[in-house]
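From the methods appendix. Each design record in this collection lists the tokenized structure first, followed by the designed amino acid sequence. Records were kept in a plain field format so they could be parsed without special tools. The example shown here is representative of the layout used throughout.

RECORD:
FOLD TOKENS (769 positions):
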């Protein structure tokens, strides 16, 4: 029971109100007849838990009260607990307007929207006319007006029908109504009882519902209080809104950058244009837009206009040519893009740390879905050139590159340096609000440097600049403020723009001959710098070279208006390097990098802690009614999946595999206190059978031992493919290739792979001839 309570406490962010004093609430006198001694047994059996977000610590205290007596007999053998706290006075407002799924799929509205779109399509086809961007805005306004009126009328009709029904029941059919209501209630009770009994055996809880429960539990978007710059707690809605607007207005306010410093850094970045650039400036086509719309998630939240992706998916065939024409108008006249079109709605998600500090919340911008289609369209044009202009050690947001490459490379580097007793310093860098702080000027200069056509650059910059955002707090939206720097987290184009801007920093470090880096093996290849988006790491032999890296970081921050967070950056020492006058804090604990924990000895195993997390999670789900299929979904989606990322690199010990298998077996068994009446307690399915495929009667539960082997084989297969195509761009691939050539390691390539490699080699030879 204690394990279950603790799991519930952690999951729901609860605090034990007497966790510091731990005063006993139950006592009993025990007399030992053997030695005639008396002792008092005291236990803390009673507790009060409160959600952390509801606690005002300055007005909080807990009392342990002795229970009152009647005729000298205590009402209880437990002490009473009493606590006083003040709930924040937060009023949730009516939700903003959103287009409902039922309205989109309504037969009436389908006909009306089709009729409206047909008018625009006819105008587009007659005499080869085009739809301007202003006409698109007009169309969207008409669509929203039609849906608003429909939903308003629909709601009014529903309320009127209910009112009439109640009136009719109260007058003409009062007796029959009460009898019918009683029968309905009895029927519902019986239905619930049957569902409860059947649930253990044949009903399934959908994975979507389970995910919603998890999301609701962990992402509480209600903001009850906030701390201002002086650390004072504010819990009035209007003042909370003011603090948020003040914070984000300052964050997104214009900060001066240095174009000369940026141009100097860009000189180290050579870009060779080829045929990939040829189609960038072409007009957008209906087919491109259809491809973008097909990739949309119909369940994503809409932006400020309230029109979701589902609308565009439903009417994609008729909308595609209209959107293509309007978007092409923005290629020619980007200045016509309106503020409303690119306005964003910011919601904030809690991160680690004090939830009352605004900086500890991640801003996500909900852009209008039409804006995201536009942005995604541009992004699809730029993505093919990324692999040609971004260095191979940047693994973030470049197709065909994997986060694991940097993890494996770093681990191999540390192991090699330790084996050869080579001293070194690995530094992990933390940018302060990386995506939110890069200047718009640095984005413009980066796009110009890689030869993006002028019309595309102008379109991108008009989508970014002079845009506004509001913040949604407890259902209310704040006043708008201008976004004068940064890229929006939630915009499809943002990751691409960010990796293009930060590339100048990587090139400057990689091409600085004074920085020698650290070796992965005894070849000439040395590792200096690697990144996954803004998560960057440098590898140097001493603090003098680290200072050179920091100088480049300072130049980059000056050039782009960004800021390096020195206090949150950290250095890992390999051996005993010279770290005199080092500015970056030296880590004494394992440091997290790309999800793994590193020390000067390499990756630190976190499997025991991970297994405890999985166990706590499963304890919560064990207390709920679930069928075998639901349990399987829970196991795969919320427990075993947590092992997947780590098992690419880590190896499970035999006792850990046994623990995992026991957890699976325990979870699949029917809970003792949740059985339908009249049925015997039995295991729902043996673990061995549960691993079988569905077609032979199993539930396809992962075999973790085989899965981790398959994941490591996948890594080896990626290496073989790189050898085959002569694209060993990852550092550890180059290291492995060198070791194979020197026969330091051996790898057997399947014969069919060798044949294919030979065929490719012959094809290239024939082409050259």
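DESIGN:
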């Amino acid at each position: 029971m204690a394990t279950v309570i603790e799991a519930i406490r952690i999951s729901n962010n609860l605090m034990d109100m007497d966790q510091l004093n731990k005063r006993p609430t139950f006592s009993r006198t025990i007399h030992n007849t053997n030695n005639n001694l008396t002792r008092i047994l005291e236990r803390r059996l009673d507790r009060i838990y409160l959600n952390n977000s509801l606690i005002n610590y300055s007005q909080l205290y807990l009392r342990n009260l002795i229970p009152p007596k009647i005729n000298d007999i205590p009402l209880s053998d437990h002490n009473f607990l009493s606590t006083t706290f003040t709930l924040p006075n937060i009023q949730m407002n009516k939700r903003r307007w959103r287009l409902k799924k039922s309205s989109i799929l309504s037969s009436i509205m389908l006909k009306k929207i089709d009729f409206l779109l047909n008018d625009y399509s006819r105008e587009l086809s007659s005499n080869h006319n085009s739809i301007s961007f202003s006409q698109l805005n007009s169309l969207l306004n008409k669509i929203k007006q039609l849906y608003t009126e429909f939903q308003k009328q629909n709601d009014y009709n529903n309320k009127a029908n209910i009112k009439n029904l109640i009136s009719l029941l109260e007058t003409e059919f009062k007796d029959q109504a009460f009898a019918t209501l009683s029968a309905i209630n009895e029927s519902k009770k019986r239905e619930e009882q049957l569902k409860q009994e059947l649930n253990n055996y044949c009903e399934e809880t959908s994975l979507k519902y389970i995910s919603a429960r998890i999301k609701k539990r962990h992402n509480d978007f209600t903001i009850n209080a906030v701390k201002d710059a002086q650390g004072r707690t504010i819990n009035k809605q209007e003042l909370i809104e003011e603090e948020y607007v003040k914070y984000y207005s300052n964050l997104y306010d214009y900060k001066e950058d240095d174009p000369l410093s940026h141009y100097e850094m860009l000189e180290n970045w050579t870009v060779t244009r080829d045929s990939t650039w040829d189609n960038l400036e072409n007009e957008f086509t209906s087919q491109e837009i259809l491809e973008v719309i097909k990739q949309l998630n119909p369940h994503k939240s809409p932006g400020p206009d309230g029109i979701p992706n589902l609308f565009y998916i439903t009417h994609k065939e008729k909308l595609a040519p209209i959107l293509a024409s309007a978007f092409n108008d923005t290629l020619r006249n980007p200045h016509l893009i309106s503020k409303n079109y690119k306005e964003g709605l910011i919601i904030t998600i809690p991160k680690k740390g004090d939830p009352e500090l605004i900086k500890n919340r991640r801003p996500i911008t909900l852009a209008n879905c039409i804006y995201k289609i536009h942005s995604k369209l541009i992004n699809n044009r730029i993505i093919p050139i990324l692999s040609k202009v971004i260095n191979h050690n940047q693994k973030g947001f470049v197709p065909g590159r994997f986060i694991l490459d940097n993890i494996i490379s770093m681990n191999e580097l540390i192991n090699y340096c330790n084996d050869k007793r080579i001293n070194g310093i690995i530094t992990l860098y933390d940018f302060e609000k990386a995506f939110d702080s890069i200047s718009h000027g640095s984005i413009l200069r980066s796009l110009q440097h890689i030869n993006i056509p002028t019309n595309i650059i102008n379109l991108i910059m008009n989508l970014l600049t002079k845009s506004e955002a509001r913040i949604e707090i407890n259902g209310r939206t704040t006043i708008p403020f201008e976004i004068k720097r940064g890229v929006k987290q939630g915009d499809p184009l943002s990751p691409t723009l960010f990796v293009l801007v930060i590339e100048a920093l990587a090139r400057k470090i990689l091409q600085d001959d004074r920085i020698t880096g650290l070796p992965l093996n005894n070849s000439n290849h040395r590792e200096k710098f690697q990144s996954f988006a803004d998560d960057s790491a440098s590898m140097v032999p001493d603090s003098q070279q680290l200072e050179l890296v920091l100088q480049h970081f300072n130049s980059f921050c000056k050039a782009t208006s960004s800021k390096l967070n020195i206090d949150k950056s950290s250095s890992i020492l390999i051996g005993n390097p010279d770290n005199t006058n080092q500015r970056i804090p030296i880590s004494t604990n394992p440091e997290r990098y790309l999800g793994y924990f590193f020390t000067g000895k390499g990756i630190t195993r976190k499997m025991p802690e991970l297994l405890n997390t999985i166990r706590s999670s499963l304890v919560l789900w064990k207390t709920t009614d679930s069928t075998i299929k639901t349990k399987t979904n829970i196991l795969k989606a919320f427990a075993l999946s947590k092992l997947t990322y780590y098992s690419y690199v880590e190896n499970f010990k035999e006792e850990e595999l046994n623990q995992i298998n026991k957890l699976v077996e325990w979870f699949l068994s029917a809970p003792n206190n949740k059985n339908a009446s009249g049925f015997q307690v039995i295991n729902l399915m043996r673990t061995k059978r549960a691993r079988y495929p569905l077609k032979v009667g199993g539930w396809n539960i992962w075999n973790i031992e085989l899965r981790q082997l398959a994941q490591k084989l996948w890594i080896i297969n990626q290496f073989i493919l790189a050898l085959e195509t002569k694209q060993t761009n990852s550092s550890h691939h180059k290291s492995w290739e060198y070791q194979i050539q020197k026969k330091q390691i051996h790898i057997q390539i399947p014969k069919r792979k060798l044949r294919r490699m030979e065929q490719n080699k012959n094809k290239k030879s024939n082409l050259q001839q």
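APPENDIX NOTE: The two ends are 77 Å apart (CA to CA).
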